[in-house]
């Protein structure tokens, strides 16, 4: 007779009268969970089940937090330099851009309406060259642009409208090998009209400021110049090409688009951030869902380990179960004992994984920096992942879903072996001992 069964025998009289999940059932379950030389292999399987659940929960929390961080950071960066709504002229050029932007700014829920002249160009120095997107913008709008305001690293934007300087991204400055005060040359194919056709236009500008948005794709492509200068450079006489609108609540774009269309009072083509970035954010969501499904397999494998571990434990404790039954323990008591064993592995593993996942997610950037220094590597190159740091945002709802899912799987995995234990015939079990 095992130690757990012997202890249970001492309290044999009240066993049949114990309530569900009484101390007797907890005591037997906990004793069976302890590692002993006779059933060490079963304890090893239980240990692997615990580790699998812990790592599965922790990994799910970390991955979902990173994907949430990616979504939020990319949204903030993209909306920091690109508006939520874009107004472009239809039928007639947008020469009344000042009036249109004033009317758009007056719409409730609109924070900012910025007229711009946009155009693609080539930029070069003696050290390098690149393709860029040039944006003509007024100084008073540039200093209010969410992605630029407060992110100027070198130089200043004061007097931006009066000079012939440009503001460029930090990565672009590194590519071109320039700093504030240096000259860059901008080139477009459609320049001045000549008797021989349209000639390319090239002009040198002084770098007035260098900014860092924090998104490598933007820091390497945007060049800002005064609006009046951009109109001349791109042959847009007193004209803007787009008015970018920033709003308080990007999720209410359908209502705001209708209000903007009514307020502007002239033919305009209005698009919003969902249309321009739909493929990108849809792809990000699909990746998140696929990663969640794949990583959930870790928890499912751990649940199967619980099934195999409990099945072996039932086989090993057949004699003990038979003795408990002859002492008066009901089938329900035996069922609950083995349910408690499986559930205990699931609960403890889930709690450990929850704490580990929160710890890693809260210190992810610190861990990345440490690993980069320790192994002299770059584990998160900005040129591939768009962002200059590794973001993580823990969503309480997703964490709750992960924890509940894991606990349910652990309990479900314990039901079949517990039912098999409760179904044992004590007479038949003892007859073969």
TrEMBL record:
Keywords: Cell membrane, Membrane, Transmembrane, Transmembrane helix, Transport. InterPro entries: ABC3_permease_C, Lipoprotein-release_system, LolCE_TM, MacB_PCD. It is a multi-pass membrane protein. Coiled coil: none annotated. Pfam families: FtsX, MacB_PCD. It is found in: Cell membrane. Belongs to the ABC-4 integral membrane protein family. LolC/E subfamily. Residues 292-426 form the ABC3 transporter permease C-terminal domain. Residues 49-262 form the MacB-like periplasmic core domain. This is ABC transporter permease. It comes from the Bacteria.
